[in-house]
Design goal:
single chain; 386 residues; alpha/beta; Rossmann fold; Helicase, Ruva Protein, domain 3; 5-stranded parallel beta sheet
């Protein structure tokens, strides 16, 4: 239920607004204030207000003063200004300060209700965007204080603002995708797409279509034109995961795109210009792949302007307690459950173990312990379930 505050010095107008809102098809809880100062006092003590109707001409503090006091502190809270002395200059000033809309008295019922709906929709969208951005920041957060991790973080901070291509190497589960996303989020391309392609998961006969797109009739199942991942990542970042598994044919075309910043869809000779930063990752030894002829040396040099080797979890063992705490909170949030305490000897026992699956394996271990343990995770739980 949306909570609406009506700041209006005329009691009759307050009653009319409350009646319109409460008799509408939506369910609104209405609060009222008889002047600007009382309205500010309510807003200072109640963080659950979703929308404010605010008169302009009022004693103590007028509507403009209330709006100015709230725009910086409550930037996502929509204000609908109302006045019996409507003039264009005042309306423009309200909108400039940050009001959502401006209505004249007496308000038109249909327009009022539509304005309320639109204002609440925008607030909900802003709140959801904020939540998703916070979740994204958490998802790209690198947890730990080990010297090995700090070295990786320092390189990311240096390379992210540049346009340099990055080759991320390391064993499975060390966080290569996390590093790629961090590079993107810290770059000037962060507002543009981050597109991921798992080269190992796409059949070799489809990889070129996936990367470069195709035109109708290029092959049997090509029923219409389709853009590829390079085009989807225009002005953003393309993450080529498991790049060591890419076919030689696709490698040659990727090399051409990196050299010329243009591509042609499968079945077409038309050149399409793209502006894409490529970040690649692999768990393979590409030098050995070059020696065996399965990876192009010229592509390797194009991709590895900056090479970033990620440490295994065994090489940053001191980060395990922080990672346990991070996964404990993350998993609890995802499942709507409470965070459980890990006893010190349980954490110490987890630190003694080797994790061939690295951070991914540790997360699975933490999730298993949270599900199977009692009120707290004990040493006995670790010995029994890990």
């Amino acid at each position: 239920m949306a909570r609406i505050l009506i700041i209006e010095d005329e009691e009759s107008i307050r009653r009319v607004l409350v009646k319109i809102l409460q008799e509408s098809d939506e369910t609104y809880e209405c609060l009222t204030a008889k002047d600007g100062q009382e309205g500010l006092d309510i807003l200072s003590n109640d963080e659950s207000i979703d929308l404010v109707f605010c008169d302009i001409k009022m004693p103590k503090k007028d509507g403009i003063e209330v709006l100015q006091a709230c725009t910086s502190r409550l930037s996502e809270l929509p204000f609908i200004m109302i006045s019996g002395h409507g003039d264009l200059e005042t309306a423009v000033e309200c909108m400039r300060i940050g009001a959502f809309d401006y209505l004249s008295k007496p308000p038109d019922l249909n327009r009022l209700l539509l304005t309320v709906k639109n204002a609440l929709d925008r607030k909900n969208l802003a709140t959801e965007n904020k939540r998703l951005k916070k979740k994204l920041r958490r998802s790209t957060q690198m947890v730990g204080e080990s010297s090995a991790l700090k070295e990786v973080q320092q390189i990311i901070e240096k390379v992210a603002p540049t346009s340099a291509r990055v080759l991320i190497t390391g064993a499975n589960g060390t966080g290569k995708e996390l590093v790629a996303r961090s590079i993107h989020e810290l770059s000037e391309r962060s507002s543009s797409p981050f597109i991921e392609v798992n080269c190992a998961a796409i059949p070799s006969e489809l990889i070129e279509s996936e990367l470069f797109g195709h035109v109708k009739g290029a092959f049997t199942s090509a029923h219409k034109d389709r853009a590829g991942k390079f085009e989807a990542a225009h002005q953003g970042t393309l993450f080529l995961d498991e790049v060591g598994d890419m076919s030689l044919s696709a490698q040659a075309k990727v090399l051409r795109v990196l050299q010329e910043q243009t591509l042609s869809r499968v079945g077409s000779d038309k050149a399409i210009k793209v502006d894409v930063r490529v970040v690649a990752a692999t768990n393979k030894n590409l030098q050995e792949a070059i020696a065996s002829g399965s990876f192009r040396e010229d592509l390797y040099h194009r991709l590895s302007v900056i090479r970033l080797e990620l440490p295994s979890l065994d090489e940053r063992n001191e980060d395990i307690p922080l990672l346990i705490e991070h996964f404990n909170t993350q998993i609890a949030e995802e499942n709507g459950a409470r965070v459980k305490a890990f006893e010190k000897d349980a954490i110490a026992e987890l630190q003694k173990k080797s994790y061939k699956g690295n951070i991914r394996e540790l997360r699975n271990v933490v999730e298993r312990l949270l599900i199977l343990s009692g009120d707290a995770v004990t040493l006995e739980d670790v010995k029994q379930y890990v």
